[in-house]
Design goal:
The protein is an alpha/beta fold. The protein contains 24 helices and 16 strands.
């Protein structure tokens, strides 16, 4: 067309011409390609058939190569990288969690009409695990893929960045990720900042940048730059803002990761245990079994090290004597490795920190203190009157990120976001960021008539950082923004835009509050859960989602009682008695569900003999499980030890428990395959090719069965502890049962609002029927 003087075709026509030219050159491949794409399953059939035929002709290697090519072609056309990555990580979530329960799933069925959806999730307590859990549930229930708002810093991390790209995450540049140390020093007088010692304000700052000064008394002071006058002068939007720093928690209130073993201490501990086993085992095994001998010695050394480490960090009061020995040993070894003996007392942990006997074991912290003093939330103006070092957060233009979000929503896509803006370990939500309201209003403003639903999602964990724990994903009612709010945001000035943002944020906050379980502190959260257990009729079993919903209802009922100001004295007395009851459970190392079974127990000699027989039977069952589980425990002992120490050190590095689960899963995907290949090599060297192949293919399946067996063994051990307790402590068991019955009757009197709580109708009917049956059959029990 160019040689004839005609104008070039438009871009679409050019692409069509190119496609026609390619098809003309490769017309012979058109039929096989079409057949491949429409009937890809035939490739799998061809893979098996060609492999067998070519192998029978005497060319097995060629047959296997042809088979592999056919399988690769099938996977290339039918399985995308995103689906493969999702499938892998969804499987990891099913392995890590014992149960992923779903609440309010009927509320997300209506979003399957092509509309754009934003999933607003909270609380964010498990770093990279949270988005995968929500993504898995949404994919299974709605067939939608969630693109997550992810920190741009994560995209630069090796491994994690590749996963984020494969999952089509949207990068978000956070100012705190680019925090830079400033040159020189500064002082401030109201809004005016003066630099000295080589400051270069013109090069480092521009309007919108944030200045951070760490003051020894007032803590972290921040100020927003509005004008840069020179390299030594600039003006802030207002005086530096800050609040007094609070004293660090008492020694006993330190989190468990502050007692993490160092790498050197871990290595020394493993060597200390390895040498005796490596010396004692060879006489009992054939000489040519030496690879197996050293493998078992190393596994047993890692197993004992891990056991000692778990006891060292345990909160079990029955192990106090063992814990003293464990801490003394680890402290001595750590001091020997560092080359400077410490003078810690036998009861001291790392850095001489004594432990407390706390049984806090709920949502957002495993070993978090039961009660800490909250920092003041009100910030006041402060002046920096002494030359101080500083850091600065550069102004970040987020227009590109918002445009990416608008376009994704405009195509009817699905976005996932954590409005809190970061992970935390608290029992309350962090203040929500305004970015979500800008996304909603901006997308509707750019694409007029676009329908967007915001679905609140509550992530309620039970021991989130423990392997085989449980999580409940609770969906709230979809939120839709009224067009009048959008018009106000589009056509109004600065104040009108702020008003529209506030209106949207109020809707989001209300939705998030309805699906999350919040308490002012861990002690209050424990109270809510105790009341929930007291409210449940004896013998009632609920799903994780129903447990969360009922605990939320209890929290709402307690707030109603507290706000009424009519039962303050009774409420305080009830709270104190619940705390006393919890302390007694801690003292006897029991759980509430075990105390439920103490009621109306006949503690006669015959009953005691029956309980002893039942305890003996369960003890035999536990020993049987142990015989089966020991080989599998040893095979994973090195990985278990390594993941425990690594996750604790990563948590200590950022001072958050929220990264432990992530590092356990990420580390496990690397460490476990390496350990498996190493064990396979040892079996191969000891028993030959057949033994190595048998272990390579059988061990993973045996490991899965061992996980389920271990869970059953753990349940038996828990029930065994309760049985032995009531056999040995008849009076204490009866006392606990009486206290529980008194508290249970008081709960129903204290919180009459519980009878009118918003809960699932089926659940309400089931609880009422169960309680009615118990009331009518009490005399005959």
């Amino acid at each position: 067309s160019r040689t004839n003087g005609n104008p070039p075709p438009p871009p679409q026509t050019q692409r069509e011409c190119a496609d026609t030219a390619r098809m003309g050159k490769s017309h012979a491949l058109e039929l096989p390609i079409t057949f491949w794409r429409k009937y890809g399953v035939v490739l799998l059939w061809a893979a098996v058939g060609l492999d067998l035929i070519i192998s029978k002709l005497g060319f097995p290697i060629i047959g296997q190569c042809v088979s592999i090519v056919c399988v690769v072609l099938y996977l290339f056309e039918n399985i995308s990288l995103r689906k493969a990555v999702c499938s892998f990580w969804f499987g990891m979530m099913d392995l890590y969690f014992r149960e992923i329960s779903i609440g309010g799933q009927h509320k997300i069925l209506q979003i399957n009409d092509g509309r754009a959806v934003i999933f607003a999730c909270a609380p964010h307590v498990n770093q990279f695990v949270d988005p995968i859990v929500v993504m898995k549930v949404v994919a299974e229930k709605t067939r939608r893929h969630v693109s997550w708002m992810t920190a741009a810093k994560s995209f630069t991390r090796q491994g994690i960045g590749g996963i984020a790209k494969a999952l089509k995450a949207i990068p978000v540049v956070r100012p705190e990720d680019n925090e830079t140390k400033g040159r020189g020093f500064l002082i401030s007088d109201d809004k005016n900042v003066t630099g000295s010692g080589g400051t270069q304000f013109l090069a480092d700052f521009k309007k919108g940048s944030l200045v951070v000064v760490k003051h020894p008394i007032y803590g972290k002071l921040t100020g927003k730059v509005t004008e840069v006058v020179s390299d030594t002068q600039m003006v802030l939007a207002g005086p530096f803002q800050g609040a007094p720093t609070t004293a660090k928690p008492a020694d006993g209130e330190e989190k468990s990761f502050n007692r993490a073993m160092s790498v050197r201490t871990t290595v020394v501990m493993v060597c200390v245990f390895f040498l005796p086993f490596a010396y004692a085992l060879p006489p009992f095994l054939p000489d040519h079994w030496w690879p197996l001998v050293y493998m078992i010695s190393f596994q047993m050394a890692c197993g004992f090290t891990n056991l000692l480490y778990l006891i060292y960090r345990s909160e079990d009061s029955e192990l106090d004597v063992i814990k003293v020995t464990a801490r003394s040993s680890l402290t001595a070894i750590g001091s020997m490795v560092r080359g400077n003996a410490t003078k810690d007392t036998p009861s001291a942990g790392r850095k001489g920190m004594p432990r407390v006997n706390s049984r806090c074991n709920f949502d957002h912290s495993v070993n978090q203190p039961a009660k800490t003093e909250e920092a003041p939330s009100l910030k006041v103006a402060r002046d920096v009157d002494q030359p101080s070092a500083y850091t600065f957060l550069p102004y970040v233009d987020q227009s590109e990120m918002f445009n990416n979000v608008y376009d994704a929503l405009g195509r009817g896509g699905t976005i996932g976001i954590f409005p809190e803006g970061g992970t935390h370990d608290g029992t309350k939500l962090l203040p929500l960021k305004w970015g979500i309201s800008t996304m909603i209003l901006g997308a509707i403003g750019k694409y007029r008539g676009l329908k967007i639903s915001v679905v609140p999602v509550g992530l309620n964990y039970f021991s989130p950082h423990k392997f085989r724990s449980t999580v409940s994903v609770d969906f709230g009612d979809p939120i839709e923004v009224d067009q009048s709010i959008v018009d106000l945001w589009l056509n109004g000035g600065k104040e009108e835009k702020q008003e529209a943002n506030c209106a949207v944020m109020e809707l989001v906050i209300a939705g998030m509050s309805a699906v999350t379980l919040q308490a002012k502190d861990v002690e209050t959260l424990e109270l809510y859960r105790t009341v929930r257990r007291l409210y449940l009729p004896l013998g009632t079993r609920l799903s994780v989602a129903d447990n969360v919903a009922l605990t939320q209802s209890v929290a709402a009922g307690f707030r109603d009682v507290t706000n009424s100001h009519k039962c303050d004295s009774r409420l305080q007395d009830f709270h104190a008695r619940c705390s006393e009851y919890s302390q007694m459970l801690s003292q006897y190392n029991l759980h509430d569900y075990q105390v439920q079974r103490f009621k109306d127990k006949a503690f006669s000699e015959t009953a005691r003999n029956q309980l002893l027989l039942r305890s003996l039977m369960r003890l035999v069952s536990v020993l049987s499980f142990s015989i089966i589980l020991v080989p599998w425990y040893l095979s994973v002992a090195p990985a278990t030890m390594l993941l425990a120490v690594m996750s604790d050190w990563q948590a200590r590095k950022v001072n958050k428990m929220s990264v432990k689960g992530t590092w356990k899963i990420l580390g496990g995907t690397v460490v476990l395959p390496i350990m498996h290949c190493w064990c396979t090599a040892c079996f191969w060297a000891t028993f030959g090719e057949f033994g190595g192949l048998v272990w390579f293919f059988i061990a993973p399946m045996g490991g899965m069965l061992a996980i389920f067996a271990a869970e059953e063994a753990a349940l038996l051990i828990k029930s065994l502890k309760g049985l032995l307790f009531i056999v040995r402590n008849t009076d204490a068991g009866q006392k606990l049962s009486n206290i529980r019955e008194e508290l249970k009757s008081e709960v129903r009197e204290l919180i009459p609002a519980l009878q009118a709580l918003e809960m699932d109708h089926g659940l309400r009917v089931r609880l009422e029927k169960r309680q009615s049956w118990l009331d009518s059959n009490t005399p005959g029990e």
